[in-house]
Amino acid sequence: MSNNSLVTGSVHSNGPVQGGSGAIITGDAWVASSPANVNQESIINDSDFIFGQSGSAIDAAQSFTPSSTERLTRISLNLKKFGSPPNRTIRVLTDNGGKPSRNLVASGASGTLQTGQISQSSFDWINISLSAPPMLQAGTKYWIAIDSSTDSNDYLIWAKDSSDSYAGGEGQYSPNWNASTPQWYSAGGDFGFKAWLGGNFNSLSSVAVGGNAHANTITGCSISGDAYYQSISGSTVLGTQYPGSQDPGVEEMPISDANISDWKSWAQAGGTISENYTITNGAIASLGPKKIDGDLNVSNNADLTITGTVYVTGNIVISNGAKLRLGGNYGSLSGIVLADGSINITNNSVFYGNGAGTYLLFLSNKTGTAITIGNNANTVIFYASRGNVNISNNAILKEVTGYQITLSNGAQIIYESGLASAKFSSGSGAGWAIESWKEVE
Prior knowledge:
Number of helices: 1
Number of strands: 48
Shape: flat
CATH class of the largest domain: Mainly Beta
Structural class: mainly beta
Helix content: under 10%
Distance between the termini: 15 Å
CATH architecture of the largest domain: Sandwich
CATH topology of the largest domain: Jelly Rolls
Radius of gyration: 23 Å
């Protein structure tokens, strides 16, 4: 953040936040320590384990034994789903004679499994962060437990290794993990999991924070609220200081690789354009669902309506007064445009939703510089899970999520609370939708 850049709202970062001249965050700033390494895992998948559908297999758990004494900063589970099960609670429990106990290893050792990130068609790794990453002891057995409920139409499927090759634990299931005397049974193998231990300390520096600041290290900041930290220097704090505070937990990205794979499939189901797609010089067109095996270029006052999910294998360039609209066929839902390459938005391009609470989501899979934005885009959500989003030239945006975000030259992000309930679809006739959106502020 530099040159009078502004975030109206709060920021949660899994990496360092570096400010500069006139950089302001009006809300709270949360700077998490990044997960370090996978300490324990079971990654073989030769069978499925269904739970929460019927019978006694309602809750499921996998034990593991860390090899070092560190904080558990992330859990990854290899899952798919049937139907649309609701979000589930993940708990890290102590061991009770080779079975899960009913006790958390520490206060806050739980998190939410966002089932909207799970695919119906294939297994994929889903990351879960914990409210308060617990300290685990080397050589001690712990359990990762999924608290489910019975629904024959909406349930989860956990990848299983029937050879039971992970030596540090095993998979078990229960009709009710929280019964007064819970019964647990062997699942006949290990469930797919990864336990991430340790973390890389991150810092908050040279930013004016209007709310509270949470970071391992705070340097050169002006904080209107309270400050939670391990180390602080060169900063002013108007509220209360809390030295020795635990680092904030990681905030997982709201879109999974499984989601992206599904979106690509839905776009391709509408057919493939086997060349660059260009619309220019005031032309009017509609597009989607469609895969473009090339680039998408919209320029010079051209007007393009998105009527279904669009997947571009190359780059997207929107420039020179171009207009992009969300088609009326989406109704109250929002639409998706994704690219394997970069996305570049410049020179007074204009975007339209389909009424209040509807948006276009532009997503880039590219590493490095993924999205470049040089003008306002109030009805667009930008997302770059692997790359950098560069925002400049006094651009004002509603929502941005990225592996890295760079604001300069008066750029502003004004987070909109309504985004927390925005819903996404692939377009008319689609068989699925992301049921909610959670912004990483």
